[in-house]
Write a structure and sequence with these properties.
- About 50% of the residues lie in helices and about 5% in strands.
- It is mainly alpha-helical.
- Helix 1 crosses helix 3, helix 1 crosses helix 6 and helix 2 crosses helix 3.
Length: about 150
């Protein structure tokens, strides 16, 4: 299965926010550091807000930040927000109106495969991606910065 650029961009946006938990970040900053056009950041951020992953603040000093802890953001949930999570094969040899398409065996198999794929992604969180990043010399330990206080 191939995920769209949109999902890759969404994960990069979330990762960028996770690496800056003490402040809000701007669209321009994300675009510049993640090599994503501002247009694409503006297009994806509302999906991530609606999905409950990000929150935004308008005005001076505003920006974007995570709406929850990185450990609470499952990769499968991000994919559900950014990708079509239903696959349906076209009818063989026929027109657009195919009465058996919804119950065709191939469609049940494809749905099972997609569900298994998403289930594996649900076992991983944004924190897994953050902790898998190589440490930068002189940078504070990211896991300490992201650990919940209290």
């Amino acid at each position: 299965m191939r995920l769209t650029k949109q999902t890759g961009y969404a994960l990069r946006i979330l990762l960028h926010c996770a690496l800056s938990p003490e402040r809000s970040v701007t669209v321009a900053e994300i675009a510049r550091t993640q090599h994503i056009t501002e247009h694409n950041v503006f297009k994806i951020v509302p999906m991530l807000v609606e999905g409950g992953f990000l929150e935004t603040t308008r005005g001076r000093g505003g920006g974007i930040k995570l709406a929850c802890e990185p450990g609470d953001i499952r990769i499968g949930d991000v994919v559900r927000v950014t990708e079509e999570t239903h696959i349906e094969a076209e009818c063989f040899g026929g027109g657009a109106d195919c009465a058996i398409r919804p119950v065709a065996p191939i469609n049940r198999i494809l749905d099972d495969a997609l569900s298994a794929f998403i289930e594996v992604l649900d076992q991983h969180t944004l924190l897994d991606l953050v902790s898998a990043r190589p440490a930068r010399p002189g940078a504070p330990d990211l896991l300490e910065r992201l650990a919940p206080v209290g």
